[in-house]
Amino acid sequence: MNASSPESVGPLAGLKVIELGQLIAGPFAAKTLSDFGAEVIKIEPPGTGDPLRQWRLIKEGTSVWWQVQSRNKRSLALDLKAPEAQDIVRQLASEADVLIENFRPGAMEGWGLGPDALMQTNPRLIMLRISGYGQTGPYRDRPGFGVVAEAMGGLRHLTGEPGRVPVRVGASIGDTLASLHGVIGILMALHHRQRSGQGQVIDVGLYEAVFNCMESLLPEYSAFGAVRGPAGSALPGIAPTNAYRCADGGYALVAGNGDSIFKRLMQCIGRPDLAQDPDLASNTGRVKRVDELDAAIGAWTAGRSVDEALAALEQAQVPSGKIYTVADIAADPHYAARGMLQSVRLDDGSDLSLPGFVPKLSLTPGGHRRNAPRLGQDSDAVLAEIGLTPQQIAALRERGIVA
User: Fold this and answer.
1) At which of 322, 355, 374 does a domain end?
2) Which of 35, 175, 203, 378 is flagged as catalytic?
3) Full residue range of the structural domain in which residue 261 is found
């Protein structure tokens, strides 16, 4: 499926956003806004740019990840350590709706770009600040990356097999969760500003975003002293739900934990006795006998390939699925039908597949308006828009402040 046309401006058209972060957390929040029409000016250092440009697999000198993280954005290469660059940021912020940053707390204040300074000029400014531990508290000055936040937020302790080294989720989930919480904060702040005319600061700590998704972890500890631990592919306290090995060596994921679903599942695997057992009619009883249920389901899947097992489970209307690789994703007709496989043409003439746009809005969907920018691609245009002359821009470039 082709990427959306430039005319697909989205519901945030007209929203002006300044992005001062790098790598993942701040830029992903700005990317989400830009996907839905916001004008995002990404400020990155001259010479090197955002380090994400060189992360993971590289094509024509630039990470293909960059094409996802920075689509629809404009690039202004600016050395924030220079007073002249700080003046430019202040001028941009005076006309912006949102400013996003994910530096260590205190960095923006050190440049004279903290919220007190910027909001004095533009009281309507909404400022999203993402950091490892938040802007306050005893840990605020510690460097905080997503992997540390995932551990502090409680997620890392829950992943993997009991008794083994806790495993990392295979994506930067802590950064992404913080980004999405930041976007939610921006949208709420915009709603408040519409009524009051006031901007505000949104303070997101990576560990807090992870902790916010930890479901019943804290109240269970508070009420029962229960310290939940890793449980492999199962979900403790909910049964049956697990990954079951099949005859071809793959795994079928089966979620039979709804009361009526459980009965259909047991009928499907040839165990009507378990389907009718009154002790298994509710989740409470099933949890007590989870090992027995897992053994029964596992014995059934062991005699079938993944596809055979899933076909039978689908027929019985039991939630189930296989473990997708990215090759499975790229070939899946449902992904294609839902517009989740977008094809874009890069500057070198080659095509690249990128993830589609989430969520799906019926009237104002997200869209791909432009490819991720080259470093400093829009510097001259952005600076001209705030009144700098070609001679002034050239002088800044000669001194290495602008690229």
Assistant:
1) 322
2) 175
3) 241-245+251-322
Sheet holding 39-44, edge to edge: 73-77, 39-44, 16-19, 98-101, 126-131, 201-205
Each residue's pLDDT expressed in tens, for the chain with a length of 403 residues: 344 444 457 999 999 999 998 999 999 999 999 999 999 999 999 999 999 999 999 998 999 999 999 999 999 999 999 999 999 999 999 999 999 999 999 999 999 999 999 999 999 999 999 999 999 999 999 988 889 999 999 999 999 889 998 888 889 999 999 999 999 999 999 999 999 999 999 999 999 999 999 999 999 999 999 999 998 888 889 999 999 999 999 999 999 999 999 999 999 999 999 999 999 999 999 999 999 999 999 999 999 999 999 999 999 999 999 999 999 999 999 999 999 999 999 989 999 999 999 999 999 999 999 999 999 999 999 999 999 999 999 999 999 999 9
Which residues fall within 8 angstroms of residue 151, CB to CB, at 6 or more apart? 157, 166
Residue 154 falls within a domain, yes or no?
yes
Domain tally, the chain: 2
Q: Is 175 one of the annotated active-site residues of the chain?
A: yes
Pair 158, 25 in one domain: yes
Helix axes 259-268, 306-315, angle to 10 degrees: 130
Q: Please check whether residue 221 is in contact with residue 237, taking contact to mean a CB–CB distance below 8 angstroms.
A: no
CA distances from 192 to 39, 98, 142, 186, 209 (A): 21, 13, 32, 10, 22
Q: Does residue 300 share a domain with residue 364?
A: no
Domain end among 295, 322, 349: 322
In a domain, 302, yes or no: yes
Instruction: Answer yes or no: do 71 and 180 share one domain.
Output: yes
H/E segment holding residue 144:
none
